[in-house]
Amino acid sequence: MLNQTLETKTVESYEEVAAVVELPVKHAEPVVVSYAEDIVKVVNLSKQFDGIEVLRDINLTIKKGEVVSILGSSGSGKSTLLRCMNWLEQPERGTIHLGDERIGINPHTDKPLKYRDLAKMRERIGMVFQGFNLWPHLTVLKNVMEALLHVKKMPKAEAEAIAKVQLEKVGMSHKLDSYPSMLSGGQKQRVAIARALAMEPEVLLFDEPTSALDPELVDEVLLVMQKLSKEGYTMVVVTHEMEFARNVSSQVVFLEKGILIEKNPPEKFFTNPDSSRVRQFLKLD
Prior knowledge:
By secondary structure, the protein is an alpha/beta fold. 32% of the residues lie in helices and 22% in strands. The protein has a 6-stranded mixed beta sheet with strand order 6-7-8-3-9-10, with helices on both faces. Strands 2-1-4-5 form a 4-stranded antiparallel beta sheet, covered by helices on one side.
């Protein structure tokens, strides 16, 4: 059973929260992970809004088990790229594959997938939004059970068992009967993460998961994400949290005006990036 430290509304210290989710402190040696096959492949992806190109010829390959952080200034296209990955936004050009399956497009007709097929595909891609997107009229437990019941058509007992396991993983098993209005922002986001995990996705997408949180609540969410990375989850994270990107990422990507201008391991990205724009962003010069 998880320690109850995370029941409190604020975080006392990094080390205290690290103990709750059984993580090392900040300066521990990184875990070495062996990456296998490609799980996400983005090829020549472009997207426009009202005739303005917000993504231009993006190419990005993500291997199973990697954590890829996407950085960039506001309006650089980070969230749009993430939303294209699960077809919440439809690109004008290019392709996205999840494993061998092309996302959003019927391979036989080359036309957009029908709603039912698209919903089935999205079961393989978990999405955690900055605004939590919890059902306000449902308890914590029922929020996590909802998709299991209505998308996967699971029996109630099975859905409830899975939901409880995932809520315990993120330190929220003591809030099963609470409603979202009774939770702190960090607690809401941990419930949203549990909801995504319950669907057993192959990839987890995080769209600025801490940007709506008060500063003292950020660590509790980042620590859960760090725990997931150590368990081998494939994660794509749009973030402004430089320390998380440096310490947890396998690769760091930088977008500038819709163009991917840098992709490197964090040790190179944060100390000796290839792009002068990234050096400027990181204030290295």
